[in-house]
Amino acid sequence: MRLYTAEEMGRADRAAQEMGISGRVLMERAGVGMASLALERFSPRRAVAVCGGGNNGGDGFVVARELHRAGVEVEVLATREEYRGDPEANLRALKGLGVRMIRPEELGVSLGRADLVVDALLGTGFSGEVREREAALIRRINASPARVLAVDVPSGVDGSTGEVRGEAVRADLTVCAHALKVGCVISPGREHAGEVAAVDIGLPSEAEVEPSVVLNDAASLAGLIPRTAEPAHKYSAGALLVVAGSRAMTGAAVMTVAGAQRAGCGIVFLVTAAGAAPLLDARLTEAIVEGAPEDAEGHMGEGALEAVLGRAGRASAVVVGPGIGVGEGGRRLVEGIVREVEAPVLLDADAITNLSGSDALAAREAPAVITPHAGELGRLMGAGAREISASRLRHAREAAARHGCCVLLKGSDTIIAEGEKAAVNPTGHVALATAGTGDVLSGVIGALLSRGMGAYDAARAGAWAHGRAARLWLRETGWPAESLIATDLLPHLPRAFAELLEGRPPR
Ligand SMILES: NC(=O)C1=CN([C@@H]2O[C@H](COP(=O)(O)OP(=O)(O)OC[C@H]3O[C@@H](n4cnc5c(N)ncnc54)[C@H](OP(=O)(O)O)[C@@H]3O)[C@@H](O)[C@H]2O)[C@@H](O)CC1
Ligand SMILES: [K+]
Which residue has its alpha carbon closest to ligand 1 atom 43? Predict the structure, then answer.
Protein backbone atom coordinates (compact mmCIF):
# COMPACT_ATOMS: atom_id res chain seq x y z
CA MET A 1 0.00 0.00 0.00
CA ARG A 2 1.37 3.38 -1.04
CA LEU A 3 1.64 6.49 1.13
CA TYR A 4 1.79 9.87 -0.57
CA THR A 5 2.33 13.38 0.71
CA ALA A 6 0.33 16.23 -0.84
CA GLU A 7 3.31 17.16 -2.98
CA GLU A 8 3.81 13.59 -4.21
CA MET A 9 0.12 13.21 -5.02
CA GLY A 10 0.30 16.48 -6.94
CA ARG A 11 3.28 15.24 -8.96
CA ALA A 12 1.59 11.93 -9.75
CA ASP A 13 -1.52 13.86 -10.75
CA ARG A 14 0.44 16.13 -13.10
CA ALA A 15 2.21 13.12 -14.62
CA ALA A 16 -1.17 11.50 -15.28
CA GLN A 17 -2.45 14.68 -16.89
CA GLU A 18 0.60 14.76 -19.15
CA MET A 19 -0.39 11.26 -20.22
CA GLY A 20 -3.75 12.62 -21.24
CA ILE A 21 -5.85 11.75 -18.20
CA SER A 22 -7.79 14.83 -17.18
CA GLY A 23 -8.19 16.03 -13.62
CA ARG A 24 -11.93 15.91 -14.18
CA VAL A 25 -11.76 12.17 -14.81
CA LEU A 26 -9.65 11.58 -11.70
CA MET A 27 -12.06 13.64 -9.60
CA GLU A 28 -14.98 11.71 -11.02
CA ARG A 29 -13.41 8.33 -10.20
CA ALA A 30 -12.42 9.51 -6.73
CA GLY A 31 -15.94 10.75 -5.90
CA VAL A 32 -17.67 7.70 -7.35
CA GLY A 33 -15.39 5.34 -5.43
CA MET A 34 -15.84 7.23 -2.17
CA ALA A 35 -19.62 7.31 -2.51
CA SER A 36 -19.76 3.61 -3.15
CA LEU A 37 -17.72 2.91 0.00
CA ALA A 38 -19.96 5.27 1.99
CA LEU A 39 -23.08 3.45 0.79
CA GLU A 40 -21.59 0.07 1.57
CA ARG A 41 -20.29 1.03 5.01
CA PHE A 42 -23.00 3.32 6.34
CA SER A 43 -26.20 2.70 4.33
CA PRO A 44 -27.12 6.36 4.88
CA ARG A 45 -30.61 7.78 4.45
CA ARG A 46 -29.91 11.46 4.93
CA ALA A 47 -26.54 12.96 4.20
CA VAL A 48 -25.01 16.41 4.35
CA ALA A 49 -21.94 17.20 2.26
CA VAL A 50 -19.80 20.11 3.42
CA CYS A 51 -17.73 21.15 0.41
CA GLY A 52 -14.87 23.66 0.41
CA GLY A 53 -13.59 25.84 -2.39
CA GLY A 54 -10.90 23.54 -3.83
CA ASN A 55 -10.74 20.15 -5.49
CA ASN A 56 -11.54 18.43 -2.22
CA GLY A 57 -14.89 20.21 -2.40
CA GLY A 58 -15.07 19.11 -6.04
CA ASP A 59 -14.72 15.48 -4.96
CA GLY A 60 -17.44 16.15 -2.39
CA PHE A 61 -19.86 17.31 -5.09
CA VAL A 62 -19.33 14.03 -6.94
CA VAL A 63 -19.89 12.04 -3.74
CA ALA A 64 -23.09 14.01 -3.08
CA ARG A 65 -24.32 13.42 -6.63
CA GLU A 66 -23.73 9.67 -6.36
CA LEU A 67 -25.42 9.44 -2.96
CA HIS A 68 -28.40 11.32 -4.41
CA ARG A 69 -28.54 8.92 -7.35
CA ALA A 70 -28.53 6.02 -4.92
CA GLY A 71 -31.65 7.43 -3.27
CA VAL A 72 -30.06 9.13 -0.28
CA GLU A 73 -31.64 12.44 0.72
CA VAL A 74 -28.70 14.80 0.27
CA GLU A 75 -28.09 18.41 1.24
CA VAL A 76 -24.96 20.27 0.20
CA LEU A 77 -23.18 23.23 1.70
CA ALA A 78 -20.83 24.82 -0.83
CA THR A 79 -18.66 27.29 1.07
CA ARG A 80 -17.41 29.37 -1.84
CA GLU A 81 -19.51 32.03 -3.62
CA GLU A 82 -18.18 31.19 -7.04
CA TYR A 83 -16.56 28.00 -8.27
CA ARG A 84 -14.35 27.45 -11.28
CA GLY A 85 -13.05 24.51 -13.31
CA ASP A 86 -13.91 20.92 -12.38
CA PRO A 87 -15.57 21.71 -9.04
CA GLU A 88 -17.82 24.24 -10.82
CA ALA A 89 -18.85 21.65 -13.42
CA ASN A 90 -19.63 19.10 -10.72
CA LEU A 91 -21.57 21.64 -8.68
CA ARG A 92 -23.62 22.57 -11.76
CA ALA A 93 -24.40 18.90 -12.40
CA LEU A 94 -25.50 18.53 -8.79
CA LYS A 95 -27.82 21.51 -8.97
CA GLY A 96 -29.19 20.17 -12.27
CA LEU A 97 -30.33 17.08 -10.39
CA GLY A 98 -32.23 19.27 -7.96
CA VAL A 99 -30.08 18.50 -4.93
CA ARG A 100 -30.85 20.92 -2.11
CA MET A 101 -28.15 23.51 -1.45
CA ILE A 102 -27.97 24.94 2.07
CA ARG A 103 -26.45 28.06 3.61
CA PRO A 104 -24.00 27.93 6.54
CA GLU A 105 -26.69 29.08 8.97
CA GLU A 106 -28.83 26.09 8.00
CA LEU A 107 -26.06 23.58 8.67
CA GLY A 108 -26.96 22.98 12.33
CA VAL A 109 -30.50 21.90 11.48
CA SER A 110 -29.36 19.79 8.54
CA LEU A 111 -26.70 18.04 10.60
CA GLY A 112 -29.28 17.31 13.29
CA ARG A 113 -31.30 15.31 10.76
CA ALA A 114 -28.46 13.60 8.92
CA ASP A 115 -27.01 10.18 9.56
CA LEU A 116 -23.95 10.83 7.38
CA VAL A 117 -21.70 13.86 6.95
CA VAL A 118 -19.40 14.03 3.95
CA ASP A 119 -16.43 16.15 4.96
CA ALA A 120 -15.04 17.67 1.77
CA LEU A 121 -14.02 21.00 3.22
CA LEU A 122 -10.22 20.80 3.12
CA GLY A 123 -7.96 18.19 1.53
CA THR A 124 -4.32 18.03 0.60
CA GLY A 125 -4.35 21.72 -0.39
CA PHE A 126 -4.49 22.62 3.28
CA SER A 127 -1.70 22.95 5.81
CA GLY A 128 -1.13 25.09 8.88
CA GLU A 129 -3.95 26.47 10.97
CA VAL A 130 -7.56 26.46 9.86
CA ARG A 131 -9.13 29.90 9.38
CA GLU A 132 -11.98 30.75 11.74
CA ARG A 133 -14.78 30.34 9.19
CA GLU A 134 -13.70 26.77 8.37
CA ALA A 135 -12.92 26.05 12.03
CA ALA A 136 -16.53 26.90 12.92
CA LEU A 137 -17.78 24.43 10.29
CA ILE A 138 -15.43 21.73 11.61
CA ARG A 139 -16.74 22.24 15.15
CA ARG A 140 -20.27 21.85 13.82
CA ILE A 141 -19.38 18.61 12.02
CA ASN A 142 -17.69 17.23 15.12
CA ALA A 143 -20.69 18.07 17.27
CA SER A 144 -23.04 16.14 14.99
CA PRO A 145 -24.11 12.63 16.01
CA ALA A 146 -23.96 11.49 12.36
CA ARG A 147 -21.20 9.25 11.02
CA VAL A 148 -18.47 11.17 9.22
CA LEU A 149 -16.85 10.24 5.94
CA ALA A 150 -13.76 12.34 5.26
CA VAL A 151 -12.84 12.90 1.63
CA ASP A 152 -9.09 12.21 1.16
CA VAL A 153 -8.04 13.76 4.51
CA PRO A 154 -10.08 14.81 7.56
CA SER A 155 -10.38 18.58 7.20
CA GLY A 156 -7.83 20.38 9.36
CA VAL A 157 -5.32 17.51 9.28
CA ASP A 158 -2.13 18.19 7.36
CA GLY A 159 -2.21 15.42 4.76
CA SER A 160 1.57 15.26 4.52
CA THR A 161 2.47 15.09 8.21
CA GLY A 162 -0.58 14.27 10.33
CA GLU A 163 -0.16 17.54 12.21
CA VAL A 164 -3.24 19.29 13.58
CA ARG A 165 -3.02 22.92 14.62
CA GLY A 166 -6.42 24.01 15.77
CA GLU A 167 -9.63 22.29 14.73
CA ALA A 168 -9.82 19.10 12.68
CA VAL A 169 -12.68 16.83 11.71
CA ARG A 170 -13.01 13.53 13.56
CA ALA A 171 -14.03 11.01 10.93
CA ASP A 172 -15.30 7.45 11.17
CA LEU A 173 -13.90 6.63 7.76
CA THR A 174 -11.40 8.48 5.60
CA VAL A 175 -11.26 7.51 1.95
CA CYS A 176 -8.13 8.65 0.17
CA ALA A 177 -7.86 9.10 -3.57
CA HIS A 178 -5.36 6.64 -5.05
CA ALA A 179 -2.85 6.41 -2.17
CA LEU A 180 -3.24 6.76 1.57
CA LYS A 181 -2.17 10.23 2.60
CA VAL A 182 0.73 10.22 5.07
CA GLY A 183 -1.24 12.44 7.45
CA CYS A 184 -3.94 9.77 7.82
CA VAL A 185 -1.54 7.23 9.34
CA ILE A 186 0.52 9.46 11.65
CA SER A 187 -0.80 10.79 14.97
CA PRO A 188 -2.63 12.98 15.69
CA GLY A 189 -4.06 12.89 12.13
CA ARG A 190 -4.39 9.14 12.47
CA GLU A 191 -6.86 9.44 15.33
CA HIS A 192 -8.88 11.97 13.34
CA ALA A 193 -9.04 9.74 10.28
CA GLY A 194 -10.75 6.74 11.88
CA GLU A 195 -10.69 3.78 9.53
CA VAL A 196 -8.62 4.54 6.44
CA ALA A 197 -9.15 3.24 2.90
CA ALA A 198 -7.99 4.16 -0.58
CA VAL A 199 -9.98 4.20 -3.82
CA ASP A 200 -8.51 3.41 -7.18
CA ILE A 201 -8.72 6.40 -9.50
CA GLY A 202 -7.04 4.67 -12.41
CA LEU A 203 -3.74 6.50 -12.15
CA PRO A 204 -1.35 4.75 -14.56
CA SER A 205 1.65 3.07 -12.91
CA GLU A 206 3.96 5.24 -15.04
CA ALA A 207 2.60 8.28 -13.18
CA GLU A 208 3.65 6.94 -9.77
CA VAL A 209 6.40 8.85 -7.95
CA GLU A 210 8.96 7.72 -5.35
CA PRO A 211 7.28 8.11 -1.94
CA SER A 212 9.26 9.79 0.85
CA VAL A 213 7.43 7.83 3.55
CA VAL A 214 6.60 4.16 3.18
CA LEU A 215 4.02 2.06 4.92
CA ASN A 216 5.94 -0.58 6.85
CA ASP A 217 3.75 -3.46 5.72
CA ALA A 218 4.72 -7.11 5.24
CA ALA A 219 5.09 -6.62 1.48
CA SER A 220 7.62 -3.82 1.99
CA LEU A 221 9.68 -6.12 4.26
CA ALA A 222 9.67 -9.15 1.97
CA GLY A 223 13.06 -10.81 1.68
CA LEU A 224 14.81 -8.52 4.18
CA ILE A 225 15.24 -10.99 7.04
CA PRO A 226 18.29 -13.20 6.54
CA ARG A 227 18.26 -16.92 7.33
CA THR A 228 21.18 -18.42 9.20
CA ALA A 229 23.46 -19.96 6.59
CA GLU A 230 25.18 -23.35 6.80
CA PRO A 231 27.63 -24.07 8.24
CA ALA A 232 26.22 -22.41 11.31
CA HIS A 233 27.27 -22.04 14.92
CA LYS A 234 25.88 -19.89 17.67
CA TYR A 235 28.14 -16.96 16.89
CA SER A 236 27.47 -16.97 13.17
CA ALA A 237 23.73 -16.99 14.00
CA GLY A 238 24.13 -13.62 15.75
CA ALA A 239 25.70 -12.79 19.10
CA LEU A 240 23.98 -10.03 21.03
CA LEU A 241 25.25 -8.24 24.10
CA VAL A 242 22.45 -6.80 26.23
CA VAL A 243 23.38 -4.20 28.85
CA ALA A 244 20.29 -3.92 31.01
CA GLY A 245 18.81 -4.08 34.46
CA SER A 246 19.77 -2.89 37.91
CA ARG A 247 19.27 -4.22 41.41
CA ALA A 248 15.69 -2.94 41.54
CA MET A 249 14.87 -3.44 37.83
CA THR A 250 15.42 -7.00 36.74
CA GLY A 251 12.34 -7.59 34.57
CA ALA A 252 13.53 -5.18 31.88
CA ALA A 253 16.62 -7.31 31.35
CA VAL A 254 14.58 -10.52 31.21
CA MET A 255 12.27 -9.18 28.53
CA THR A 256 15.04 -7.70 26.42
CA VAL A 257 16.99 -10.95 26.45
CA ALA A 258 13.93 -13.11 25.81
CA GLY A 259 12.81 -10.88 22.93
CA ALA A 260 16.24 -11.26 21.36
CA GLN A 261 16.22 -15.02 21.76
CA ARG A 262 12.86 -15.35 20.02
CA ALA A 263 14.01 -13.06 17.21
CA GLY A 264 16.60 -15.61 16.25
CA CYS A 265 19.80 -14.69 18.02
CA GLY A 266 22.42 -17.45 18.33
CA ILE A 267 23.67 -16.33 21.72
CA VAL A 268 22.80 -13.55 24.16
CA PHE A 269 25.16 -12.17 26.78
CA LEU A 270 23.72 -10.02 29.51
CA VAL A 271 25.81 -7.57 31.48
CA THR A 272 23.81 -6.28 34.45
CA ALA A 273 24.32 -4.81 37.90
CA ALA A 274 26.14 -7.24 40.21
CA GLY A 275 23.24 -7.29 42.67
CA ALA A 276 20.81 -8.38 39.97
CA ALA A 277 23.05 -10.96 38.33
CA PRO A 278 22.33 -14.08 40.44
CA LEU A 279 18.57 -13.73 40.05
CA LEU A 280 18.84 -13.02 36.31
CA ASP A 281 21.25 -15.89 35.83
CA ALA A 282 18.70 -18.22 37.38
CA ARG A 283 15.86 -16.91 35.26
CA LEU A 284 17.62 -16.70 31.90
CA THR A 285 18.51 -20.30 31.25
CA GLU A 286 19.94 -19.83 27.75
CA ALA A 287 21.75 -16.53 28.29
CA ILE A 288 25.22 -15.86 29.67
CA VAL A 289 24.88 -13.45 32.56
CA GLU A 290 27.65 -11.35 34.04
CA GLY A 291 27.42 -8.95 36.97
CA ALA A 292 29.14 -5.58 36.64
CA PRO A 293 30.17 -3.28 39.51
CA GLU A 294 27.22 -1.29 40.80
CA ASP A 295 26.85 1.98 42.68
CA ALA A 296 25.04 2.64 45.95
CA GLU A 297 21.67 2.75 44.12
CA GLY A 298 22.24 -0.62 42.51
CA HIS A 299 22.87 0.83 39.03
CA MET A 300 25.84 -0.25 36.96
CA GLY A 301 28.54 2.23 37.94
CA GLU A 302 32.28 2.75 37.90
CA GLY A 303 33.94 -0.23 36.22
CA ALA A 304 30.81 -1.40 34.35
CA LEU A 305 32.06 0.01 31.05
CA GLU A 306 35.12 -2.23 31.27
CA ALA A 307 32.90 -5.28 31.81
CA VAL A 308 30.79 -4.31 28.81
CA LEU A 309 33.74 -3.65 26.53
CA GLY A 310 35.27 -6.95 27.62
CA ARG A 311 32.17 -8.75 26.28
CA ALA A 312 31.51 -6.48 23.31
CA GLY A 313 34.39 -7.92 21.32
CA ARG A 314 32.46 -11.19 20.87
CA ALA A 315 29.13 -9.53 20.06
CA SER A 316 27.84 -8.63 16.62
CA ALA A 317 25.43 -6.05 18.15
CA VAL A 318 24.81 -4.38 21.50
CA VAL A 319 21.56 -3.28 23.16
CA VAL A 320 21.84 -0.89 26.06
CA GLY A 321 19.29 0.81 28.24
CA PRO A 322 16.34 -1.11 29.71
CA GLY A 323 16.33 -0.70 33.46
CA ILE A 324 19.87 0.66 33.81
CA GLY A 325 18.74 3.80 35.64
CA VAL A 326 19.45 7.46 35.03
CA GLY A 327 22.43 9.29 36.49
CA GLU A 328 26.06 10.24 36.05
CA GLY A 329 27.25 6.62 36.15
CA GLY A 330 24.71 5.61 33.51
CA ARG A 331 25.72 8.54 31.38
CA ARG A 332 29.38 7.57 31.43
CA LEU A 333 28.48 3.96 30.66
CA VAL A 334 26.26 4.83 27.69
CA GLU A 335 28.63 7.43 26.29
CA GLY A 336 31.47 4.95 26.59
CA ILE A 337 29.51 2.28 24.70
CA VAL A 338 28.52 4.74 21.98
CA ARG A 339 32.14 5.85 21.64
CA GLU A 340 33.95 2.53 21.91
CA VAL A 341 31.74 -0.25 20.54
CA GLU A 342 32.22 -0.86 16.84
CA ALA A 343 29.29 -3.27 16.39
CA PRO A 344 25.83 -1.78 15.78
CA VAL A 345 24.36 -0.39 18.98
CA LEU A 346 20.72 0.03 19.98
CA LEU A 347 19.93 2.56 22.72
CA ASP A 348 16.63 2.38 24.52
CA ALA A 349 14.91 3.80 27.58
CA ASP A 350 17.35 5.06 30.23
CA ALA A 351 20.22 4.96 27.73
CA ILE A 352 18.45 7.63 25.69
CA THR A 353 17.68 9.77 28.72
CA ASN A 354 21.30 9.41 29.85
CA LEU A 355 22.38 10.94 26.54
CA SER A 356 20.33 14.16 26.92
CA GLY A 357 22.51 17.06 25.85
CA SER A 358 25.32 14.75 24.70
CA ASP A 359 26.72 14.75 21.17
CA ALA A 360 28.22 11.26 21.53
CA LEU A 361 25.84 9.75 18.98
CA ALA A 362 26.55 12.37 16.35
CA ALA A 363 30.26 11.70 16.72
CA ARG A 364 29.80 7.92 16.29
CA GLU A 365 30.52 6.44 12.88
CA ALA A 366 29.21 2.88 13.32
CA PRO A 367 25.45 2.17 13.04
CA ALA A 368 23.15 3.10 15.90
CA VAL A 369 19.43 2.83 16.53
CA ILE A 370 17.54 4.69 19.21
CA THR A 371 14.02 3.62 20.20
CA PRO A 372 12.49 6.46 22.21
CA HIS A 373 8.88 7.21 23.03
CA ALA A 374 7.84 10.86 22.76
CA GLY A 375 9.01 11.69 26.30
CA GLU A 376 12.45 10.18 25.79
CA LEU A 377 12.88 11.82 22.40
CA GLY A 378 11.81 15.11 23.97
CA ARG A 379 14.52 14.79 26.63
CA LEU A 380 17.10 14.00 23.96
CA MET A 381 16.02 16.93 21.77
CA GLY A 382 15.40 19.45 24.53
CA ALA A 383 11.67 19.58 23.80
CA GLY A 384 8.49 18.56 25.61
CA ALA A 385 6.72 15.27 24.92
CA ARG A 386 3.74 17.28 23.73
CA GLU A 387 5.78 19.13 21.17
CA ILE A 388 7.19 15.83 19.87
CA SER A 389 3.72 14.25 19.73
CA ALA A 390 2.32 17.16 17.73
CA SER A 391 4.90 16.74 14.92
CA ARG A 392 6.07 13.16 15.12
CA LEU A 393 7.43 12.75 11.60
CA ARG A 394 9.34 16.02 11.70
CA HIS A 395 10.93 15.26 15.08
CA ALA A 396 11.84 11.69 14.17
CA ARG A 397 13.58 12.98 11.06
CA GLU A 398 15.26 15.85 12.89
CA ALA A 399 16.58 13.50 15.58
CA ALA A 400 17.89 11.09 12.94
CA ALA A 401 19.68 13.93 11.16
CA ARG A 402 21.05 15.57 14.29
CA HIS A 403 22.35 12.34 15.85
CA GLY A 404 23.29 10.57 12.62
CA CYS A 405 21.41 7.42 13.58
CA CYS A 406 18.23 5.48 12.92
CA VAL A 407 15.33 6.69 15.07
CA LEU A 408 12.36 4.51 15.96
CA LEU A 409 9.78 6.79 17.56
CA LYS A 410 7.36 4.58 19.46
CA GLY A 411 3.62 5.01 19.33
CA SER A 412 0.58 3.30 17.89
CA ASP A 413 1.99 4.73 14.63
CA THR A 414 5.64 3.87 15.25
CA ILE A 415 7.84 5.91 12.90
CA ILE A 416 11.25 4.73 11.73
CA ALA A 417 13.50 7.40 10.23
CA GLU A 418 17.05 7.37 8.96
CA GLY A 419 18.64 9.88 6.59
CA GLU A 420 16.11 10.61 3.86
CA LYS A 421 14.10 7.47 4.59
CA ALA A 422 11.02 7.17 6.77
CA ALA A 423 8.48 4.41 7.40
CA VAL A 424 5.27 4.23 9.41
CA ASN A 425 4.49 0.90 11.02
CA PRO A 426 0.90 -0.33 10.71
CA THR A 427 0.94 -3.30 13.11
CA GLY A 428 0.93 -1.26 16.34
CA HIS A 429 -1.92 -1.84 18.75
CA VAL A 430 -3.20 -0.32 22.00
CA ALA A 431 -2.51 -3.70 23.59
CA LEU A 432 1.18 -2.77 23.48
CA ALA A 433 0.61 0.17 25.84
CA THR A 434 1.84 -1.82 28.83
CA ALA A 435 5.10 -2.04 30.77
CA GLY A 436 7.90 -4.08 29.25
CA THR A 437 6.79 -4.25 25.63
CA GLY A 438 9.46 -1.70 24.74
CA ASP A 439 12.12 -3.92 26.31
CA VAL A 440 10.96 -6.84 24.17
CA LEU A 441 11.18 -4.60 21.10
CA SER A 442 14.76 -3.61 21.94
CA GLY A 443 15.76 -7.24 22.19
CA VAL A 444 14.03 -8.09 18.91
CA ILE A 445 15.72 -5.30 16.97
CA GLY A 446 19.03 -6.03 18.69
CA ALA A 447 18.80 -9.65 17.53
CA LEU A 448 18.14 -8.57 13.95
CA LEU A 449 21.13 -6.22 14.10
CA SER A 450 23.27 -9.06 15.44
CA ARG A 451 22.15 -11.19 12.51
CA GLY A 452 23.58 -8.66 10.09
CA MET A 453 20.61 -6.52 9.15
CA GLY A 454 21.18 -2.79 8.62
CA ALA A 455 19.85 -0.42 11.27
CA TYR A 456 16.85 0.87 9.30
CA ASP A 457 15.74 -2.56 8.08
CA ALA A 458 16.22 -4.15 11.51
CA ALA A 459 14.14 -1.41 13.15
CA ARG A 460 11.40 -1.76 10.53
CA ALA A 461 11.22 -5.55 10.68
CA GLY A 462 11.39 -5.53 14.48
CA ALA A 463 8.57 -3.01 14.77
CA TRP A 464 6.40 -5.00 12.39
CA ALA A 465 6.96 -8.36 14.10
CA HIS A 466 6.48 -6.87 17.58
CA GLY A 467 3.10 -5.37 16.68
CA ARG A 468 2.11 -8.45 14.78
CA ALA A 469 2.87 -10.64 17.80
CA ALA A 470 0.40 -8.60 19.85
CA ARG A 471 -2.24 -9.02 17.17
CA LEU A 472 -1.62 -12.78 17.01
CA TRP A 473 -2.03 -12.98 20.79
CA LEU A 474 -5.33 -11.09 20.54
CA ARG A 475 -6.55 -13.38 17.80
CA GLU A 476 -5.53 -16.54 19.58
CA THR A 477 -6.80 -15.70 23.05
CA GLY A 478 -9.79 -13.52 22.20
CA TRP A 479 -8.93 -11.66 25.41
CA PRO A 480 -9.29 -7.91 25.85
CA ALA A 481 -6.35 -5.91 24.54
CA GLU A 482 -5.86 -4.37 27.99
CA SER A 483 -4.97 -7.78 29.44
CA LEU A 484 -1.82 -8.28 27.39
CA ILE A 485 1.42 -8.39 29.38
CA ALA A 486 4.80 -7.98 27.73
CA THR A 487 5.87 -11.62 28.06
CA ASP A 488 2.71 -12.66 26.14
CA LEU A 489 4.46 -11.36 23.04
CA LEU A 490 7.27 -13.89 23.30
CA PRO A 491 5.51 -17.07 22.15
CA HIS A 492 3.95 -15.14 19.24
CA LEU A 493 7.11 -13.61 17.86
CA PRO A 494 8.12 -16.79 15.98
CA ARG A 495 4.79 -16.85 14.10
CA ALA A 496 5.17 -13.16 13.24
CA PHE A 497 8.66 -13.81 11.88
CA ALA A 498 7.44 -16.85 10.00
CA GLU A 499 4.95 -14.62 8.20
CA LEU A 500 7.71 -12.24 7.18
CA LEU A 501 9.97 -15.09 6.08
CA GLU A 502 7.23 -16.81 4.11
CA GLY A 503 6.31 -13.49 2.52
CA ARG A 504 2.68 -14.37 3.10
CA PRO A 505 0.41 -11.37 3.49
CA PRO A 506 -1.05 -11.77 6.97
CA ARG A 507 -4.73 -12.48 7.26
N1 LIG B 1 -4.12 15.70 -6.82
C2 LIG B 1 -4.86 14.70 -7.33
O3 LIG B 1 -4.35 13.88 -8.07
C4 LIG B 1 -6.26 14.57 -7.00
C5 LIG B 1 -6.85 15.36 -6.01
N6 LIG B 1 -8.11 15.20 -5.64
C7 LIG B 1 -8.70 16.01 -4.59
O8 LIG B 1 -8.19 17.31 -4.57
C9 LIG B 1 -7.81 17.66 -3.25
C10 LIG B 1 -6.78 18.73 -3.27
O11 LIG B 1 -7.39 19.83 -3.87
P12 LIG B 1 -6.76 21.29 -3.84
O13 LIG B 1 -5.34 21.20 -4.17
O14 LIG B 1 -7.61 22.12 -4.71
O15 LIG B 1 -6.87 21.73 -2.35
P16 LIG B 1 -8.03 21.54 -1.24
O17 LIG B 1 -7.60 20.43 -0.35
O18 LIG B 1 -9.36 21.45 -1.83
O19 LIG B 1 -7.86 22.86 -0.39
C20 LIG B 1 -8.02 24.11 -1.02
C21 LIG B 1 -9.09 24.86 -0.31
O22 LIG B 1 -8.71 24.99 1.03
C23 LIG B 1 -8.76 26.36 1.41
N24 LIG B 1 -7.74 26.58 2.42
C25 LIG B 1 -6.41 26.45 2.29
N26 LIG B 1 -5.80 26.73 3.43
C27 LIG B 1 -6.76 27.06 4.32
C28 LIG B 1 -6.74 27.43 5.70
N29 LIG B 1 -5.61 27.55 6.38
N30 LIG B 1 -7.92 27.67 6.30
C31 LIG B 1 -9.08 27.55 5.63
N32 LIG B 1 -9.15 27.21 4.32
C33 LIG B 1 -8.01 26.96 3.69
C34 LIG B 1 -8.54 27.12 0.15
O35 LIG B 1 -9.12 28.38 0.29
P36 LIG B 1 -8.45 29.65 -0.42
O37 LIG B 1 -7.11 29.79 0.23
O38 LIG B 1 -8.36 29.32 -1.86
O39 LIG B 1 -9.38 30.74 -0.08
C40 LIG B 1 -9.26 26.25 -0.86
O41 LIG B 1 -10.63 26.53 -0.86
C42 LIG B 1 -7.39 16.35 -2.64
O43 LIG B 1 -7.40 16.35 -1.24
C44 LIG B 1 -8.42 15.42 -3.22
O45 LIG B 1 -9.60 15.47 -2.46
C46 LIG B 1 -8.98 14.22 -6.28
O47 LIG B 1 -9.95 14.91 -6.97
C48 LIG B 1 -8.31 13.22 -7.18
C49 LIG B 1 -7.05 13.59 -7.78
K1 LIG C 1 -11.69 16.55 3.71
Answer: 123
